Structures
1.
Amino acid sequence: MKAGKVLTFSSIFAFAVAVVFFIYLVNASKALSYLSTDPKACINCHVMNTQYATWQHSSHAQRASCVECHLPTDSTVNKYKAKARDGWNHSLAFTMDTYDQVLQISEDGANRVQANCISCHARLTEIIISNSDRYHDFSGTPSTERKCWECHRDVPHGKARSLSSTPNNLGVREQ
Amino acid sequence: MNKYKLLLGGSLVAIAAMGFMASSISGKQEERESINTSPVVKAEGVESKNEEWARYFPRQYDSWKQTKQSDTIEDMLEKKPQLVILWAGYGFAKDYNAPRGHFYAVQSNINSLRTGAPVGPATGPMPTACWTCKSPDVPRVMDEEGENEYFTGKWARLGDQIVNPIGCADCHDSKTANLAISRPYLKKGLEASGVNLDEITHQDMRSLVCAQCHSEYYFKPTEYKDAEGKDQVAKVVTFPWAEGLSAENMETYYDGYGFSDWTHKISKTPMLKAQHPGYEIYKTGIHAKRGVSCADCHMPYKQEGSVKYSDHHIGNPLDNIANTCLTCHRESEEEFKSLVKTKFERKEQLMELAMNSLGKAHLAAGKAWEAGATEDEMEPVLELIRSGQWLWDYSIASHGSFYHAPEETLRLLGVANDKAQEARLKLVAVLAKHDVFDYVAPDFSTKEKAQELAGVPLQKLIDEKVAFKSALLQEWNQTAVKEGRLNMEPRKGMSDNSSYSK
């Protein structure tokens, strides 16, 4: 009976420690900031400092935050599904150090951005689409399938996309 | 019972897993902090050796080092011999050259005949204040000794301390590398002129770091007690900005203070010497009014690959016209240069007129004293000469005033010439009273003739300087190297030009 009591107490104590530890972890990893739309959440770690700095100095900084281009905007469910998927992939890559120095957008990410370009610049793209049959087509693929940034190369992250484009960028000044 | 075992086991596994995660998070956090922190060149005090900064700022250092290319001596006394007459009895009549690159600041100061030929720490004509704009060792010594202490004693006292030429720590904080005012007298001058230091913006700083040296100043005798309680008098560099920054404002300031830099050797006028009021006159020009800073034109951004930084090869923006002037002015390079040339020629014409008039006024005043003129007769004349020469000096003593503020420069030269001519008119009457008619000023059209008139013993000064350079100067450098203040490496291949080395 005495041994049983020790077990009960120690298991409840261990559980309580685990709960407190969990709360600490949520706080230390700034986990809740990922539920917000604040662009600073994207540079909680340093990996995207360059992307943040180039966006911050672009004209898009006045209009669109990170998630407004990079997450689906058609429904909240799709948005959080994408957020969860990206969040899992990013935290895994960051924890295991498996990310590359030169970041490239995924196929899925590119499609999302393209959809958001079109949703904001709807009037403009409508004209492009309605005129698409008059474009020269050398590749055999319909020109409506090309991505906006194949031409608008420096929107919004600049032409040189590597760490060297922002050598003195030290993240957001916190002072 | 099994429930608790499960809970205990599960909790322990979770704690272990979360322990790994917590250690990963804190490791990553350290990584992030180190990436987000700018390099610290020196945590405490001032890093005066420019080479030490090169480790973290190699591009800026390399561009700074290119100021080494600007090593030609242009003897201004030879080019404009009137200067010798205007500055008779003052150091500038001995030796005065056009400016060279920042790299040569210390060498030019040492080679100039104005700083004389000391033989020990307490000899020579000049106070320590003459080092003030030459080196990042100055804020270091001020930091170590105290401001008044730095400004006490003879120039030669700090010969083995002030050894690195104008560089990084003159404009940048050694800890954060941010732009910083390293000279306390600029802060005092700004406050005296009504500037609230807390309202200074980064864009202001891109001019103010230059204004630390490219400004008008005088040496204000300041009494204080040193660490041992002994009475000392420091000669503190001070900006005369309390009445405002214009030539007339400063004149009011100096007149109110009864100040004169020296008494003119020929005309006996209590003179004012304007020291390059570059910042002040730039403030009256259109570029300053439009918020263009010194660095915008003199340190344009540069790109290497995709790395962008500001060019520390400071000099004439016309040498790099495509990246400076033409980024805003859409003329062709040729057309733009010809516009600037016109501005320069306009200034030259009025400047020559004013200098000739002032020179002749000094000589005629000297003649009047000789002929027996009284102080009462001479007083209004000397006042005009003092004021006229001050305005002339203020208008042209800084770099490129004809470009920074063309209208103000020409206005001042016009008024200066008028005052000089008025003095000469009065002198005709004074001379006539003492039976001197048809006085014609002697010829001062070459440096030799002018220095003869001004009584400058040039050869003696040169001989003494050469002796100083082979004796005391060598000791200074050896001590500085031994005590770790000077690295001779960057001086390799450095020329040693002076007005007398030809």
2.
Amino acid sequence: MAKDGERGRYNRPRLALHVPEPQFRPGDTVDFSHIPVPEAGAQPRPDEACQPVETNPLCYDLIRVLGDDHQAHGPWDPRLAPDELRRMLRDMALVRAFDERMYRGQRQGKTSFYMKCTGEEATSVAAAHALAGDDMVFPSYRQQGILIVRGYPLLEMINQIYSNRGDKLKGRQLPIMYSSRAHSFFTISGNLATQVPQAVGWAMASAIRHDSRIAATWLGEGSTAEGDFHSGMTFATVYNAPVIFNVVNNQWAISSFSGFAGSERTTFAARAIGYGIAGLRVDGNDPLAVYAAVRWAADRARSNHGPTLIEHFTYRAEGHSTSDDPSAYRSAQEREEWPLGDPIMRLKQHLIALGEWSVEQHQEMDLALAEEVKAATKEAEKNGILGHGLHHPFHTMFEDVFEELPWHLEEQADQAIRERQIKWPQS
Amino acid sequence: MASVVDSDAVSLTDAPTRAMNMIEAINDALDIMLERDPDVIVMGEDVGYFGGVFRCTAGLQEKHGKTRVFDTPISECGIIGVAVGMGAYGLRPVPEIQFADYIYPGLDQLISEAARLRYRSAGEFIAPMTVRSPFGGGIFGGQTHSQSPEAIFTHVAGLKTVVPSTPHDAKGLLIAAIEDNDPVIFFEPKRIYNGPFDGYYDHPTKPWKDHPDAQVPEGYYSIPLGKARVVREGQALTVLAYGTMVHVAQAVCREKGVDAEILDLRTLLPLDIEAVEESVEKTGRCLVMHEATRTSGFGAELAALVQERCFYHLEAPVERVTGFDTPYPHSLEWAYFPGPIRTGEAIDKLLGA
């Protein structure tokens, strides 16, 4: 029987497993000409109340506003006042200055870990500008820009990064895993995409309560492979939840290129189509396009027209984190050759083209922001840096596991304190 | 001391009682909490219009409305995930996972999220949810409708785990769980939904209505989490049990004429360690029972605690009566179930030592 079966298979074609491979590896010459970069302003803008299906073509397009002439074009131009544009520029530049300083701090041994968002600043900063300040955000780990936009003090961010005695999270979380209820910023998880159904649940609760606030979440293209993403999308479409899914496609998930999340076959925005959710694919390095897309989705959600998935097409210009070495798996040329430019440079040139900004003003701003970050860093260091003893009291390790301390944790806390007294009898 | 006294006595009013089975008692608790607290939301697969596959939510959608009690997609990850988000908003969700065997897709949301929110946000965000789920075997559910995965949850810092064994306790414990500001896993032994099944599968199971613990007070009352119940006082040995096994222990001790002290733990975490110590120190012998698989089961934790804390009072090694370390077999369900023979042997061993 089995033999007959084997014989029957002889004439069939042999199967081959496809394992995705990125186009460029270290040392390769990079040519991104295969990435279509459509003309700015050429993409249609449907009404926010449209049927989801009307957005389907936009899932394969790329919404762009800022053209090579540094002017804003087309129906997606959000027509923001110069003051708003300058605020957005400043916020992105502050994020970059902050990232630079914190990265150096990690290299100097002041903390264990840091993650920059270089090149991706627009996907959080412009998005946060397009939301109301009390809309609830469920970020991933590279949306420090939202906190900056919402005025969260740099000092608090650095205290958290240093896990020092000023850290409001009591030194429990890995650096950059911020939380600020007062800024409608949900506590960041180290597990990927778990925030997606949570954002949907928050949005459902807001709708149950006839509130006016919406929810927005961010995740990387890599973690769209997680079941949580798909559960979240299903719940969002079933209950028409007022939520925005921001998929930041920065091409790389640590060392795995976006092909391992399915980018060889379709776009990430197109994930929306199967769920019957509105989908937009946007030039993530174009702050005006990001603003316009998120604003469109926010208006749609707020008027009970349902959720939107936005793919922000961008590039992770730096390593995944301070623990990563991207030169080991990708070509260093990718960053320079990225066809969509740099979000800060593009907004700066737009403002200059409008006659609302100058190279000199930009230099002054950068200097002032570097000073602001430096001052906050000095202030935070008074509360200690990681591993130098200025941490929260020992007993806090056992608090907040439950609302009240159960007997077994009380016993374990006694043990920990006893161990400490043996180690440091003087303290 | 206080734990040996029936601890819910203080919380009980003089309210008139009514005989209920466990399903009716759970339904009553949900109804009362939906009425009392506008933050309470009940959701899960088939819980809305239909009222749940075990009928625990029957009539609640009609009474409280479609945005308070509703069906969900078949996605346990999604159910727990949205419950975390609802809790962050300020609601108090009571999701149902249709069978405990189905809870695994939701584990990351329970273990890494719900259980850790308070800690990782230093109290800024909490997950005040109660996850209800029928568990245990004895209904010919096969290997995916019979499991008792409580030890997975007691192993997680930040979760409370509750298992009622009577209609009276099911109502009071569920109300306490819903009011608790920490995430609670509330496992309902489905074999005793309709009657106090005692492991003698070849005898007819009596319905709850004539059982004293089926007399459920009307209206609101709660039984504090973390307090065990002395089911029966005795001198010969201590039985630590929960859920269905409480009834098995009672029946076997009755049949054998053993003067056992039977403790219904009710809450596995936080555990009523005082009640355990007090009883074992008195009897000097301890039997630990659960329906779940043996290795790394919650019984191992109980045995270790008794050994650590009561060693010099023990007259015999702690015995465990558990399910076998196999999946729950459909046709050999009763061979798997830790019934009267396994229990009787363990008791003989304890008393003979």
